Amino acid sequence: MKSTHIQHLYNRIGFGITPKEITRLSKKNKQDIVDEIFSTSEKITPLKIDTSFLEDVKPKDLKDRDKKRELQKINRKKVNDFSVAWFERILNPKEIFREKMTLFWANHFVCESRNNIRFIENYNNVLRENAFGNFGDFTKKVSKESAMLGYLNNKQNRKKSPNENFARELMELFTLGQGNYTETDIKESARAFTGYNHNFYGKFVMKNKHHDENEKTFFGKTGNFSGDDIIDIILEEKQCARFISEKIYTYFVNENINKKHIEEMVSVFYKDYNIEKLMRFILLSNWFYENVNIGTKIKSPLEFLAGIHTIVPFNFERPKQILLIQKLLGQVLMRPPNVAGWQIGKNWIDSNTMVRRLRLPSILLNSAEITYSDTGDEETMVSDLKSKKLKRKAFIKTKVDWNSFEKNYKTTSNKELISLLLTNKILPGTRELLLENSNIPKKDFCIQLMSIPEYQLC
């Protein structure tokens, strides 16, 4: 398999690849490489943090206002801890493709819960566990998760006063896409999901006295439907397979939809909604490796940071400042902007984030510091904090493992480094400038490469 294609593959299913791995994999054919990718991501390693503080918490504790306030404060701190742990997992994934798929599904089945770490930790691991499973089963599990029941108000969905939030987003954002259902479908679907709730510990509970047992008419079918029945009826719509195929294509292949490719994906996915089969089909398709799809995707902030880490491993001296970096770049784990999630592609880039992206490799890898205003509207990047004013501001510092970089790229020339770090076309002027500076130390040249606009693509 060609080196360029291996790079492209690992940029999309993970966060880049080292020269040593490219050399090893180049001796294999496409089928064997794809098989290996799925094999190494077959295992499921749940992401856990210390939540022992919840062990002695009882429902009655929430009736005490002061105790409740204190528990909420601890929970919010733990949610931030989980966000940091997730980021560190992304930088050092064992099951690479599973983690990339978890990131994808987190921006599809969007959910947020800042006041209960147990609920959101369980939810995140449901995404991880079902990343390659059956989409129908996956959707049913999501509908019953305590974090989602709270986020889209389905806990308040009762037969005498239906709440339509979850029913609407189920179709608009999770399964069919806008315009492929009616307002009546939303109302009837909401009735089917009445009574969904959970206990104090987050376990799903069906409140039968709040469930509407009367007949509902949904997509032309009539019956005493439950929430699971509604999802089964949605899955019968080929539009569901098409909507998910388009979402996956946009994320893993190209923002510009190729209808022929989508229909090929639909023919695979609609049969049994097996996510792994669909992803195997994509990665084995010849069109996945066409030039039009290589180096055309704008990296998300997390892909950008993880990609730098793959080339030059680094660690934050103060791990919680990971959240600050994510905020400055516009993507904070566990904090989606809204129920629709982050808009990808060109939406990642504006005048502020572009400047930050271009400067960040130097900041992260040169042990320089970044200071920022209290409002977060702007930041000044410096390597000298002698000013008392600057000292009062927070700053970020990292520990960089240049030894790993030197080991991985020991036999790589600066000119060869260009093609290893960039899979997209480079503007003639940029290439000329890079070649003029190709005699500088490899570390400096690497930082220079990651600080050009072309590095924003993968």
From TrEMBL:
InterPro entries: DUF1800. Pfam families: DUF1800. This is DUF1800 domain-containing protein. It comes from Polaribacter haliotis. The lineage of its organism: Bacteria, Pseudomonadati, Bacteroidota, Flavobacteriia, Flavobacteriales.
